Amino acid sequence: MKMQIWNLFRVRGAGLLFLVGFGALLLMRCGSPKEIVQPIAYNHKVHLTEAGLDCRDCHKGVENSIRATIPSIKVCASCHSKIKGKSTAEAQVVEAVKSGTEIPWQRIYRVPDHVFFSHRRHVTAGKIACKTCHGDVEKLTKPASHQLVPIAMKTCMKCHDNKSISNDCIHCHV
Ligand code: HEC
Ligand code: HEC
Ligand code: HEC
Ligand code: HEC
Ligand code: HEC
Predict the structure, then answer these.
(1) What distance in angstroms lies between residue 119's CA and the mean position of ligand 3's atoms?
(2) Which of 154, 123, 149 minimizes the C-alpha distance to 136?
(3) Can you give the pTM of this predicted structure?
(4) What pLDDT is stored for residue 32 in this prediction?
(5) Which ligand 2 atom sits closest to the C-alpha of 78?
(6) What is the pLDDT of residue 63?
(7) Which of 6, 96, 165, 166 could join 160 via S-S bond, C-beta 3.0 to 4.6 A?
(8) Which residue, judged by its Cα, is nearest atom 13 of ligand 4?
(9) Is residue 66 a contact partner of residue 119, using CB atoms and an 8 Å limit?
């Protein structure tokens, strides 16, 4: 009899442990979207203040094309042919410049293939600030690991409604 109760307890304990573990796994999967880690600890703030650059100097497509684009190593080469500071990140950039290797940056902002979005349309024609859709990039001292302003159909449509721009499905869905 004693033995049986003990067995029951053991089984229950294992069940509980399984449930807790499973619950934690579910929370981890649903709670946080995938965090992206960039290959080099790039610092936006230093380039917009100390280096005196503008968003358009690096994201060259932003005014005239669909895509803003992430800069190629050629853009970095004009300033980073030699190590000046002490940071490892800077040393990694100089290394890449010397060998002419592109840095494998990962995209954070991306719409699904069935959605059409144009930077030119929003930045040049619509005169909408980068900040509205990307947050305070000027203040970033390290790469963002997720979308600071999440892309969502609701958000697109809300602004279009406010500005009396058509929200017909066919405008955004190709
Ligand atoms: C010296 C070049 C440079 C300048 C100037 C610059 N950026 Fe960037 N930007 C980068 C690099 C490199 C990355 C990729 C690494 C990262 O995410 O930090 C990036 C990433 C981004 C991303 C994330 C894109 C994605 O989908 O992964 C956004 C948004 C962005 N920049 C906006 C801006 C805005 C807004 C400004 C001006 C306020 C700006 N950038 C100025 C080089 C630059
Ligand atoms: C107009 C010149 C200029 C361009 C173009 C430029 N940088 Fe810089 N960068 C600077 C200056 C100035 C600093 C700050 C002083 C230093 O550390 O050398 C800096 C610093 C850095 C650092 C060290 C930051 C830290 O917080 O430790 C990294 C990493 C870096 N740059 C990456 C890049 C990358 C990647 C590109 C190309 C997408 C790029 N830079 C383009 C001028 C520039
Ligand atoms: C109305 C919202 C909106 C505005 C304004 C906006 N962006 Fe974007 N941005 C997006 C969306 C949506 C994407 C994803 C696009 C895709 O997948 O084709 C994106 C993607 C990007 C990327 C990733 C690389 C790429 O080529 O797609 C960069 C870098 C970027 N934006 C920079 C900027 C900068 C710099 C500005 C201001 C000059 C700006 N954006 C203004 C919504 C916006
Ligand atoms: C903060 C406001 C704002 C947000 C957010 C915004 N848009 Fe727009 N959108 C505009 C404005 C303003 C225009 C008109 C620009 C012009 O004058 O051509 C426009 C135009 C467009 C057009 C062209 C419409 C046509 O009739 O040809 C498309 C497509 C579009 N947006 C897609 C998107 C998508 C997709 C998103 C979300 C990822 C988005 N927009 C988010 C303000 C916004
Ligand atoms: C202003 C732009 C815009 C308009 C107008 C728009 N959508 Fe979307 N839609 C998006 C964006 C951006 C996404 C992707 C982000 C998201 O899922 O929220 C999306 C996602 C979707 C999805 C989800 C697909 C998936 O990948 O899960 C469906 C379904 C959809 N839209 C249907 C519609 C229908 C139906 C209409 C017309 C009533 C419409 N949309 C109008 C921008 C738009």
Answers:
(1) 6
(2) 149
(3) 0.91
(4) 53
(5) 5
(6) 97
(7) 165
(8) 126
(9) yes
